[in-house]
Structure prediction request, 494 residues.
Amino acid sequence: MKKTFIVIGILLLIIVGIVVFNPQILFAFRATQKMALNLEGEQAAAFYFPENKTSKDTLYMKGVIYGGTLGDIKEALDENPQVTTLRMVEVPGSVDDEVNLLASREIRKRNINTYIPEQGMVASGGTDMFLAGKERAAHATAKLGVHSWAGMDKEALDYPKDHEEHKKYLKYYEEMNIPSEFYWYTLEAAPASNIHWMTPEEITKYKVVTQTTKPNELLTIQQTLASDAFEGRGTGKNQKAQDFIRNYFKEIGLQSFNNSFDIPFTFKERKTGKERKAVNLVGYVKGKTYPDTYLVVGAHYDHLGVVDGVVYNGADDNASGTAAIIMLAKYFKKNTPEHSIIFAAFDAEELGLHGSINFVKSPPVPLDQIKFNVNMDMISRNPKNEIYISGTHQFPQFKPLLQKVAAKSSLKVSFGHDDPSDTTKDYWMDSSDNSAFLHAGIPNISFGEEDHPGYHHHTDDFERIHPTFFKKTFLLIQSSIEAIDKNFPNPVKK
Prediction:
């Protein structure tokens, strides 16, 4: 027995000696990688959902990729098949490149998108994993780092270009549709002991994100309106948003009524009875065939402002609809419609639909010349890719046209939330800015998605929207307006 203890003691001393003189040995085994990372003050990669999140469409990731990452991500995705996006909060690298490439391929295999949020960071092997996203996006403040890899006592460029170690990375980049030049660039950008933070130009050049060389303007407008600088666009304190929209209207070249895009109004707040001031922003494009007949395309630009010191950015509600108004105005200015189209950004919707109510009570043109209204309220965030069109229950003459447009979209386009007798769905016809038009007898439809966990919550941030869904929804709305403008239907006789 004594000899056994002596042998065990000697073995332990040998192991300790090996680790002391060659600490990298710890990284050779999955079981010891976490321990080694902890000793270095690092965290092994973890996949999680924040405690305050009820939606499970976005999986969060933080930490260094290690030998157990493949199993960890498989388990997380198997248990949560509704995940569409991997949000990489801070992934500074990998201690097991073989596992990293396998885990990254698993991400691509499952068509998961990757996103680096505001102030987020990925580097080295983390950047390789980011590239696995079917669609890849990064906040303007996010950091992407690259450098050379090293093996034994050599760095990557010490190996011949046709070496097997190079080939495995080049094969991976080819699978991810990343140019091979990117690989050689990373080796030259910085040595293994350092890091190079990519510039926007480099990110674009090597297709690191799936955006085009020019950022999508629809998303850029939404991101700006939903930034902290706009302080939640609360009525009475949303002058910065007004300036932004007004400047866009001027730049686009919209015409104004009475030499101003501003239509100020006052209203009484329901809770306090106090009189409040607000501003609608309204411009129009003159129609070529029916210049004195108007369609109104509207959305509210206000949101909840700052609540208990927390900014409620309202990215989906309703920076999405506001961004759509601006881009629709830009489109129809270049593509002159048959009817005149009024573009209206309504204020004080959150306080009781006051902007649209005031517009209908005091319209910039005779009310009988307004033949139709399109309303957009929350159109950028739905993991099911489902968008609702409401209003065809009251105005069925528009449904055949809309169905034809919807058939060409890859979105799930549903009709509903407009039948008061349907107890299975919330009734939307009195819950947004279309209501005032409905009660004035003006045909209208609304585009919107069902509520999500960010609705009227401080988590309604730009980082949580679904960009592809938003862009497809915008195109659906644009095509729908065009179809109605060119083939305005007669009322269905009942």
About this structure: The radius of gyration is 28 Å. Residues 14-29 have pLDDT under 50 and may be disordered.
